[in-house]
Inverse folding.
């Protein structure tokens, strides 16, 4: 009996895990697929009211107005009249696949010990079978930049698609950029230590900046020398200095942004991207002059300071866009993995604050693709690019009408089922039966 009990629990756990496992990744595209009649939102600002879209072997081969061609419809035909087709949405600066359950330490792999970790790679910790990742797809979020957290230099991110067996199958762009968490120029008083709980200058700010600057100087010196002794953090900086890796600097306050611009100039940094940029509208002209794109922080937030406009988080993207800055939207913050599914609705929100609908769409498709350096294959519905797209019954930026009927990643038709949709069906059936009684 003891031996029987010994094996019962593992078997039950295995069965429970199997019952909620992620959908099996879709097979490779077999034959052409034609979508006809949909309103196509290309992702670059263009709209085709009655479109003809054909893709084969994972690539878009035709994107045109159905009224302007007599082309035969090859392969499987999807009649999408009255519906809308969009490029797959891209979620930058995300921890999707790095954390499953916050309270379970074994499932949390977003942070490593240490402060200066340019050699840490988020990709190898990415869980392609995450149930959280799976739940992004029914809202059209099909691609993400998987980003580490913590420390002054968190490590490198990678870009993946959300339909794979493992991280090797998922990767679209490996180690695309280095992430730096800029020091905070202010801090809140420690009330438990008898300090005023209000905001005050951070006395360690200059020291933190100097430590970061020294690391860059020492890394350059090391790379220029004989490198007789291996130094993994310094070696990981080589691709940063030669411009092959982007540098994502996470900063928000005006002083921090000004210092960030000086740091960029001092160390002759290339391909810098600002993440967050809460006060960036105050120095938008300087950011534009430095040719720095901005991944605007979460739209659905309250103002950080009492004297700020109540709608500043809603209109920040518009303020920067008006200045000619390349803008994308990101969703980091509390419960950020779950927030990633709301990415299209963040874009929908900014349309009410000075951004046109197609311009807002660009902020989660083609603009983000350009910022991440993947616009050669993703971000818009254009011939030669990956067939990563979806069909929605209505406006995909409106949570009331974003109801997806088909989704494709590199031409593979993926399942839109998830643990959540299965639960919804289960309990809808249960309570529906009770109502009939």
């Amino acid at each position: 009996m003891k031996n029987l009990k010994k094996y019962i629990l593992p078997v039950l756990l295995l069965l429970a895990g199997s019952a909620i496992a992620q959908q099996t990744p879709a097979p490779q595209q077999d034959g052409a697929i034609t979508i006809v009649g949909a309103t196509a939102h290309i992702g670059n600002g263009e709209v085709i009211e009655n479109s003809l879209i054909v893709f084969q072997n994972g690539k878009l081969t035709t994107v045109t107005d159905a009224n302007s061609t007599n082309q035969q419809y090859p392969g499987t035909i999807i009649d999408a009249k009255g519906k809308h087709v969009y490029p797959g949405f891209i979620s930058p600066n995300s921890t999707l696949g790095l954390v499953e359950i916050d309270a379970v330490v074994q499932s949390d792999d977003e942070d490593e010990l240490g402060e200066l970790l340019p050699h840490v790679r988020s990709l190898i910790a990415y869980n392609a079978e995450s149930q959280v990742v799976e739940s992004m797809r029914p809202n059209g979020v099909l691609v993400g930049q998987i980003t580490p957290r913590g420390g002054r230099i968190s490590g490198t991110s990678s870009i993946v698609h959300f339909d794979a067996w493992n991280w090797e199958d998922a990767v679209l762009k490996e180690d695309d950029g280095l992430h730096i968490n800029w020091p905070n120029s202010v801090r809140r008083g420690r009330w438990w230590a008898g300090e005023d709980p209000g905001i005050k200058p951070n006395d360690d700010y200059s020291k933190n900046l100097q430590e970061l600057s020294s690391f860059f100087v020492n890394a350059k010196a090391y790379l220029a020398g004989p490198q007789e002794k291996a130094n993994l953090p310094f070696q990981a900086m080589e691709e940063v200095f030669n411009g092959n890796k982007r540098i994502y600097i996470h900063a928000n306050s005006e002083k921090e942004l000004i210092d960030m611009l000086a740091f960029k100039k001092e160390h002759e940094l290339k391909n810098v991207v600002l993440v967050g940029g809460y006060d960036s509208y105050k120095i938008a002209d300087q950011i534009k002059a430095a040719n720095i794109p901005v991944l605007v922080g979460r739209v659905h937030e309250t103002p950080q300071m009492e004297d700020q406009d109540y709608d500043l988080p809603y209109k920040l993207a518009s303020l920067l866009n008006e200045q000619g800055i390349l803008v994308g939207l990101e969703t980091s913050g509390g419960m950020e993995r779950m927030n990633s599914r709301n990415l299209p609705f963040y874009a929908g929100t900014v349309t009410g604050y000075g951004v046109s609908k197609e311009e807002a769409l660009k902020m989660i498709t083609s603009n983000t693709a350009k910022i991440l350096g993947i616009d050669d294959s993703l971000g818009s519905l254009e011939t030669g690019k990956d067939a990563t797209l979806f069909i929605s019954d209505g406006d995909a930026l409106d949570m009331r009408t974003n109801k997806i009927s088909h989704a494709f990643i590199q031409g593979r038709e993926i399942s839109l089922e998830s643990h959540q949709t299965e639960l919804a069906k289960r309990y809808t059936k249960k309570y529906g039966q009770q109502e009939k009684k």
The chain has two domains: 26-88+379-437, 89-183+229-375. The longest helix spans residues 205-224. The CA atoms of residues 25 and 414 lie 7 Å apart. The longest strand covers residues 171-181.
